[in-house]
């Protein structure tokens, strides 16, 4: 079994039912409401993937830079920008080493982009973003709530199957209490070929987040439920807002 984290073309393929234009509209609106920023603000879309948020935010008048290490996702993002006639910057780089990409009023780590690497690399990603925010600039970090995830999995232990025609993705979840990580054993059967990966997503508790963010030069400001809902212990997803010192 290979241990890796990237959201690759195959993950994109099985997520197409979720990655709709309407979902992207909703996510962009949710992120903007949480960040409370106005057009003209500079946004770093960290791990922008196929650009579904970056392109929409740029179309609304934000000055957006999308960064991603995956060339295939960036190709999709550039094509989406071209198709919409929108001009924005895309940078093909790891978030840990983004080079001279400028300074930002706000940053996004959206759609569980943070947390699949080891602890030191995850910390470097946050530091790298924090140093590119103006003092008081905010990071919106869309992740999962470890308490809600454990409670849900205790009631719904069965693997989750996603189908695309004859192809299928089977996610078997377990929560590792020692590392506070959600393990996903992801098996994919596509075009008659089967492969498996083990994804390990770091899901700190809120007090642990306060510490992780502090070490990166950020202060936890607020915690939100998803899609405008209130954050509760049962929330599956959550969005943290952290401010740069
Ligand atoms: C789950 S996708 C989310 C994409 C986008 N944020 C969205 O909302 O659709 C995660 C993306 O982040 C990128 N990514 C994750 N960790 C990264 C890192 N350390 N450096 C650069 N890109 C990263 C992956 O290549 C992938 O395209």
From TrEMBL:
SUPFAM superfamilies: S-adenosyl-L-methionine-dependent methyltransferases
Gene Ontology annotations of biological process type: methylation
GO MF annotation, one: methyltransferase activity
InterPro entries: Methyltransf_25 (IPR041698), SAM-dependent_MTases_sf (IPR029063)
Keyword entries, A-Z: Methyltransferase, S-adenosyl-L-methionine, Transferase
Domain Methyltransferase: residue ranges: 43-137
Chain segments annotated as transmembrane: none
A Pfam family hit: Methyltransf_25
Keyword Transmembrane helix: no
PANTHER family named among the record's database cross-references: METHYLTRANSFERASE (PTHR43464), UBIQUINONE BIOSYNTHESIS O-METHYLTRANSFERASE, MITOCHONDRIAL (PTHR43464:SF19)
Protein name, entry field: Unannotated protein
Natural source organism: freshwater metagenome
